[in-house]
Design a protein that fits this description.
It is built from nine helices and 33 strands. The chain is mainly beta. It is globular, with a radius of gyration of 30 Å. The protein has four domains: 4-251 and 309-342, Collagenase (Catalytic Domain), CATH 3.40.390; 356-441, Immunoglobulin-like, CATH 2.60.40; 444-626, Jelly Rolls (Sandwich), CATH 2.60.120.200; 632-721, Immunoglobulin-like (Sandwich), CATH 2.60.40. Helix 3 packs across helix 5. Helices cover 11% and strands 30% of the residues.
């Protein structure tokens, strides 16, 4: 059984963080769960740790003579934001590893060597070097860095980000490369504190998860690392090579080769501690075979503590790690001379691949795009070209950049799809990367009222009015020409049969809302969807985002999931067959902040093995009846299946009801005195309707919501918290 080691590193004091102290350890909690689940686990772990601790001494007190090299691959899981860290920041993280594991760190002078803390002579050295791989598993040149844009996996991250099938990045063979995944934040499973990283022990049959998962803001020492000393990675690597925390099992007087952290030169420590007190001594016990033979102070300097003053591994810790690397098969192969050739770690730094990326690929007229050179290795000259169009007419280099800049900034003036090319050179070797239709400049903003029924489209590929995101490169939004709510066309996501977690998005063109008067008018966004769950337990998500700056920042305005998305189950691939299968959502929370000429809306669906999803009849219109364009209004009908949720509500109220025909429908919120608090007019459709009302601006209390469609009125009570 695999051992997943989560741990909370709460010794941060650098800018941008508030220290979050905790009296628990994620490692101990996970290990205890493993013990509870597997009666043999405790003995397995004990035998592995004991074998590693007693496999040989620290070269008779000498630095290991045989140097060891570890090929590294770093998987950067990001969302096109600050988490897409630079090559330089990644190298800074490895630089810290190489310093710390070779006792070349500049703070060795603060290691104590006093009567009660004689630790400096006990400092260990691994004599190893961590180097980014230069040949990938397929034999192609690489810089040892994999970049994956996966917004759904980089926040609150866990094991899902380690698999291509989820849109993440698969582990490179663990017997050839040491894998590190860098993310924005890590799931702490509801526990207190902030998890900065976790690792797997090398014991007990490790598999595709082996490696380190770590936050980008604690990775390295520059840029997004928030003035970190970079020791989080040092700590995690210790776990990955087999070390426990120095406070493992707390105080004890038993044989230190068989208990605690299995290292006899790390005095027992009662519990995690964040103090750098020079006199701290949490344990009075002296273990059998202890290296000191007396009650030494706690080793606050140790990398496997939680202290800010970390600066050393002990000799026994170094010996334990070396024993593991020299005896555990996959680690033995990883550092073998043959594997160092196969991974190319010592290959010269010559250019072998031109590459680039941009954080945005679809923008509005007049917007600019930053292009980032990702070529490797060691480019020194660049030549960018853009087609079609004419420089200074259709596009222009800005901010002092040019076609020969490493990372140019380009402003675009003409709608269309653009090819971007980069010729990179190291002075001797050249390579060209060409990305066709890489940049889309959207048409000039569409005016109100806006309606999209997809009737004029046969494909979304290359469409100028719609773009889509498909991070997993599998089934994506596409035009269905036989299944429409209005007409014959709609957009379909073939979600049935997809494996793992899949996130897809459909994004509109720019829509001009600058004509809306924020004092007298409001805007309603409505759309229809059709969906069935595949199983009773299926929990899939529809999220609606809006932006007022074309795409620089997205704000989530609606989330529907689980039984709210649909209470019905269909075990086979499902297609809507009647108007009753469609639900109309009316969003009244498009506030005045979005009354601009670069408004866009994004529909994001997160599938988790459920059924197909359909989207149609996207409307954006002024909320006043005198100014609305209503499609297909029919006679009045009954109001049925009325419900409001959540109730009580905090910031958002959902009003769900069913009509037998299309109706202009008025929703009025009144307090208990009958005074109107707010009023909305929407173009309700036949079938199910869900109106989303922003309640943040009304006071706490009891209210009534009145729904009027033609001559029919129904009222329900709700509570605002």
């Amino acid at each position: 059984m695999k051992l997943k080691l989560l741990y909370i590193l709460l010794f941060i004091s650098f800018s941008g963080y508030t220290q979050q102290f905790s009296n628990w350890c994620g490692t101990d909690r996970i290990v205890q769960q493993m013990k509870n689940n597997d009666p043999n686990y405790a003995e397995l772990l004990h035998k592995a740790m004991s074998k590693a601790a007693n496999g040989g001494t620290y070269q008779n007190g000498q630095i290991p003579k045989s140097a060891m090299t570890i090929p590294v691959v770093v998987h950067v899981i990001h969302d096109n934001g600050i988490g897409d860290i630079s090559d330089e920041q990644i190298q800074s993280a490895l630089d810290i590893l190489n310093q710390d594991y070779n006792r070349q760190n500049p703070d060795t002078n603060i290691t104590r060597n006093t009567m009660n803390a004689p630790f400096k002579p006990q400092a260990g050295v691994m004599n190893c070097e961590f180097i980014l791989a230069k040949i990938d598993p397929d034999g192609n040149c690489t810089n040892g860095i994999v970049r994956v844009n996966a917004p759904n996996l980089t926040y609150d991250a866990g094991e899902d980000c380690k698999y291509d099938v989820n849109g993440g990045s698969d582990q490179w063979p663990l017997d050839k490369y040491f894998n590190i995944w860098v993310v924005n934040s890590i799931n702490n499973d509801g526990a207190p504190g902030m998890i900065l990283g976790y690792a797997y022990y090398p014991y007990g049959g490790v598999g595709t998860e082996y490696g380190i998962l770590i936050r980008h803001d604690t990775f390295g020492t520059i840029e997004t690392a928030n003035n970190s000393d970079g020791r989080t990675l040092t700590h995690e690597m210790g776990h990955a090579f087999g070390l426990a925390h120095i406070f493992d099992q707390g105080c004890h007087s038993a044989d230190c080769n068989q208990n605690g952290d299995y290292c006899c030169d790390t005095p027992p420590q009662a519990a995690p501690n964040w103090s750098c007190s020079q006199t701290w001594n949490s344990c009075p016990d002296v273990p059998i075979n202890d290296d000191y033979g007396f009650n030494a102070l706690d080793q606050i300097e140790n990398y496997m503590s939680y202290n800010e003053c970390q600066n050393m591994f002990s000799r026994d810790q170094a010996a334990l790690m070396l024993n593991n690397v020299n005896s555990i098969n996959f680690l033995v192969n990883m550092v073998s001379p043959q594997n160092l050739i196969e991974t190319g770690v010592f290959n010269p730094l010559i250019l072998c691949k031109s590459d680039f990326e941009s954080f945005k690929t679809s923008v509005c007229v007049g917007d600019s795009i930053n292009f980032i050179d990702r070529s490797f290795q060691n480019p020194i000259n660049w030549n960018w070209s853009i087609s079609p169009g004419v420089v200074n007419v259709d596009w222009i280099f800005i901010n002092g950049s040019s076609s020969n800049s490493q990372n140019p900034v380009v402003q675009f003036f003409t709608p269309g799809n653009y090819q971007i090319s980069l010729l990179a050179s190291d002075g001797t070797n050249n390579d060209t990367e060409i990305k066709n239709q890489y940049i889309t400049i959207l048409p000039f903003a569409h005016s109100l009222p806006y309606w999209e029924g997809f009737e004029g489209l046969t494909t979304l590929a290359g469409a100028t009015y719609w773009s889509f995101e498909n991070n997993q490169s599998n089934a994506t939004f596409q035009i269905d020409q036989t299944t429409g709510s209005t007409g014959n066309h709609c957009v379909k996501l073939a979600n049935y049969g997809q494996m793992g977690v899949n996130t897809d998005a459909l994004i509109s063109t720019a829509i001009d809302l600058s004509v809306v008067n924020p004092l007298t008018e409001n805007v309603t966004l409505s759309f229809k969807y059709a969906y069935r769950k595949r199983y009773d337990a299926t929990d899939e998500w529809l999220r609606v985002f809006v932006t007022n700056d074309c795409s620089d920042t997205w704000t989530q305005r609606k989330t529907i999931h689980g039984v709210q998305l649909s209470p019905f189950v269909e075990y086979t691939p499902w297609t809507p067959s009647s108007s009753a299968d469609w639900t109309t959502v009316h969003m009244t929370n498009i506030t005045s902040n979005y009354f601009v000429d670069k408004f866009r809306v994004k529909f994001e669906f997160e599938g988790q093995g459920g059924n197909n999803f359909y989207l149609d009849d996207i409307n954006l219109y002024l909320g006043s009846p005198s100014n609305t364009v209503v499609l297909g209004i029919a006679e009045e009908g009954e109001i049925a299946e009325l419900s409001v949720y959540p109730n009580p509500t905090d910031a958002e109220l959902n009003v769900r009801f069913t009509l037998s025909s299309n109706q202009i429908t008025q929703l009025t919120i009144m307090d208990i005195t009958g005074k109107t608090a707010s009023k909305y007019v929407i173009n309700a459709a036949s079938g199910s309707n869900n109106v989303i009302i922003d309640t943040e601006n009304i006071a706490a209390g009891v209210y009534f919501i009145s729904i009027n469609a033609g001559e029919i009125t129904k009222t329900m009570q709700f509570v605002k918290k």
